[in-house]
Design brief:
The chain has 254 residues and is an alpha/beta fold. It has 12 helices and 7 strands. The chain has a 5-stranded mixed beta sheet, sandwiched between helices. Strands 1-2 form a two-stranded parallel ribbon. Helix 7 crosses helix 12 and helix 8 crosses helix 9 (181-202). The radius of gyration is 21 Å and the shape is elongated.
């Protein structure tokens, strides 16, 4: 899914460079059938052979096997990985002639609103980092040290799931107050979408926007106090810590 989002983002931005794609799922080819300028390879090695840039858009559990397949096919190329928890050094050991850039995009990239963190491997040049950035036109880009990539994954990579979970929880709470399920969901999702747009438009800190909507002694203050008693901040900290730790486990092959 993320690979498709990257391809579509590049094409929307007018990128014309030839792209050779491999995916073991034939449904992916159907999903991209509206992009006839793509070439489809019969294997990962065939897709990677001779490429200037190789994008590894797979889940971390799939990356070791994929590297075994493409390692000998990749020569003096830039290898860009989106796999969480897999260090640049591990990729470099499998493709020693390549330069490596790790990235962590998040799923809003599919809607043109993504955030992508990047870090360069040992032999990657500033030009390589710039080329990797160019794979994500329109996204918010952050350069981070590699020792923070697991935390990036926990915050921005997994973060959309936290948001969606909160939407579902708010919709369920609205339904419990008497709304039908469809109206409850529209209330919850519409409110969060509007709040996100306001945060972007106003350029004010979230804390200040929260203060502006909270009247002393009013309904919002009552709700926020309830969230504080439920230790919302601590729950979020715990969730991010758990995701960060899982990223470290993946980097260790666990």
């Amino acid at each position: 899914n993320m690979g498709e989002a990257i391809i579509r983002g590049l094409r929307r931005a007018g990128a014309e460079q030839p792209m050779v794609v491999f995916d073991p799922d034939p449904r992916r080819r159907t999903a991209l059938s509206d992009l006839p300028e793509l070439s489809w390879a019969t294997s990962p090695a065939a897709a990677a052979r001779g490429a200037d840039v190789v994008l590894l858009a797979v889940k971390p559990q799939s990356l070791p096997g994929l590297l075994d397949e493409v390692g000998l096919a990749i020569e003096q190329a830039l290898v860009v990985s989106i796999a969480a928890g897999v260090t640049a050094a591990r990729i470099e050991s499998a493709v020693p002639r390549a330069r490596v850039v790790r990235t962590m995009p998040n799923t809003p990239l599919m809607a043109g609103k993504g955030l992508v963190a990047l870090c360069a491997g040992r032999s990657a040049t500033p030009e390589d980092l710039a080329a990797a950035r160019g794979l994500f036109p329109g996204a918010t880009l952050l350069d981070v040290p590699e020792d923070l990539m697991d935390a990036v994954t926990a915050v921005s990579g997994s973060g959309p799931a936290y948001f969606f979970a909160f939407v579902e929880a708010l919709a369920a709470a609205a339904e419990a107050q008497g709304f039908d399920a469809q109206t409850a969901y529209r209330l919850a999702a519409g409110t969060f979408l509007g709040a996100a747009a306001l945060l972007e438009w106003s350029n004010l800190p979230a804390k200040e926007l929260c203060r502006r909507v909270t009247s002393p002694g009013g309904t919002t203050e009552a709700a926020l106090r309830s969230l504080e008693r439920g230790e919302l901040a601590e729950l979020v900290h715990s969730a991010v810590s758990a995701a960060t730790e899982r990223g470290r486990e993946l980097s260790e092959g666990r």
